[in-house]
C-alpha cells in the first residue's frame, strides 16, 4: 500500500491535510505562573483533588502518536505528544471515581469548557498533554497543559472526535453523572463531534 493511499484511508470525510499546525482558539492566551497555578478535580469522585504544577510534573507520563482533525476541516497526521494519561490515573487509583461518573467536563482558563463521555475521555487516544513534537507546548497551543484527542492509526475501536474536544490551558476536570454542554456545544457545535460521521454542528 502506498503512503498516499494509507493517508487517504486515515482522512475523515470533509477534511484536508495540512503540514502546518493552525492555532485556533476563543479569547486571549492566558499567562502562566507556576507558583500559583493549580489543577482541580471534583464532582463524581471519592475526594476532590488539587495538584500544583510541580505535582503535575511528577505524575506518570506517556507518549502517543495521533492524527488530529479540526472541525474547521484541516487534519494533521502522525503528531507526537507527551503527557499524562487519564486512563492511567484512574487505573492507578490517583483519581478515584464514584460509580455514578459517566461524563467529564474539561475546565480551562477564562471559563472555557468542553464535555466528553467518560469512556471517550478514558480512551488511549486522549492525553493531558504537556509536550508536542518533543518540546513543551507553546502558549498558543495550550501551554502549560491541554487536553488533546485524535486518532491512533488502525485503532478504530477508539472514538475519534474533533480537536475542540480537548481544551487548551486546562485547569480542571469535573466528573459528572449527567451530561452538560460545554462552551462550543452550547453555541451550535455537535455534542458528540464524531469525525467519521461529520458531526460538526448540532441539528
What features would you describe in this structure?
With 203 residues, the protein is mainly beta. The chain has four helices and eleven strands; from the N terminus they run H-E-E-E-H-E-E-H-E-E-H-E-E-E-E. The protein has a single domain, classed as Sulfite Oxidase, Chain A, domain 2, CATH 3.90.420.10. 11% of the residues lie in helices and 31% in strands. Strands 1, 4, 5, 8, 9 and 10 form a six-stranded mixed beta sheet that branches. Mean pLDDT is 94; it is low at 1-5. It holds the Pfam family Oxidored_molyb. Keywords: Oxidoreductase.
What is the element layout, followed by pairings?
Blueprint: H1 3-10, E1 16-17, E2 38-43, E3 49-52, H2 53-57, E4 62-69, E5 74-84, H3 86-91, E6 103-108, E7 113-117, H4 118-121, E8 126-132, E9 135-136, E10 146-149, E11 170-176
The number of strands is 11
Q: What is the total number of structural domains?
A: 1
CATH T-level topology: Sulfite Oxidase, Chain A, domain 2
CATH superfamily: Oxidoreductase, molybdopterin-binding domain
Largest sheet, described in full? 6 strands, mixed
Q: Helix content range of the residues, please?
A: 10-25%
Quote the distance from N terminus to C terminus.
38 Å
The low-confidence runs, each spanning 5 or more residues with pLDDT under 50, are 1-5
**Count of DSSP-assigned helices:** 4
Q: Gyration radius, to the nearest Å?
A: 16 Å
Q: Per DSSP, what share of the residues sits in E-state strands of 2 or more residues?
A: 25-35%
CATH architecture: Alpha-Beta Complex
Task: Name the structural class.
Answer: mainly beta
Shape: globular
CATH class group: Alpha Beta
Taking all residues together, what is the mean pLDDT? 94
Question: What are the secondary-structure elements, in order, as H or E?
Answer: HEEEHEEHEEHEEEE
GO molecular function: oxidoreductase activity
Domain Oxidoreductase molybdopterin-binding: 27-184
Keywords: Oxidoreductase
InterPro entries: OxRdtase_Mopterin-bd_dom, OxRdtase_Mopterin-bd_sf
Amino acid at each position: 500500500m502506498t503512503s498516499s493511499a494509507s493517508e487517504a484511508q486515515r482522512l475523515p470525510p470533509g477534511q484536508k491535510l495540512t503540514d502546518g499546525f493552525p492555532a485556533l482558539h476563543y479569547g486571549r492566551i492566558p499567562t502562566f505562573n507556576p507558583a500559583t497555578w493549580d489543577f482541580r478535580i471534583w464532582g463524581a469522585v471519592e475526594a476532590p483533588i488539587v495538584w500544583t504544577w510541580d505535582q503535575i510534573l511528577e505524575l506518570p507520563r506517556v507518549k502517543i502518536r495521533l492524527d488530529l482533525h479540526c472541525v474547521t476541516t484541516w487534519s494533521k497526521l502522525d503528531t507526537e505528544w507527551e503527557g499524562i494519561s487519564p486512563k492511567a490515573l484512574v487505573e492507578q487509583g490517583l483519581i478515584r471515581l464514584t460509580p455514578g461518573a459517566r461524563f467529564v467536563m474539561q475546565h480551562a482558563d477564562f471559563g472555557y469548557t468542553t464535555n466528553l463521555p467518560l469512556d471517550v475521555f478514558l480512551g488511549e487516544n486522549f492525553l493531558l498533554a504537556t509536550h508536542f513534537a518533543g518540546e513543551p507546548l507553546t502558549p498558543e497551543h495550550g501551554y502549560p497543559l491541554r487536553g488533546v484527542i485524535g486518532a491512533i492509526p488502525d485503532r478504530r475501536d477508539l472514538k475519534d472526535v474533533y480537536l475542540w474536544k480537548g481544551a487548551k490551558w486546562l485547569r480542571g476536570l469535573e466528573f459528572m453523572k449527567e451530561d452538560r454542554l460545554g462552551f462550543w456545544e452550547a453555541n451550535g457545535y455537535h455534542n458528540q463531534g464524531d469525525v467519521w460521521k461529520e458531526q460538526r454542528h448540532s441539528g
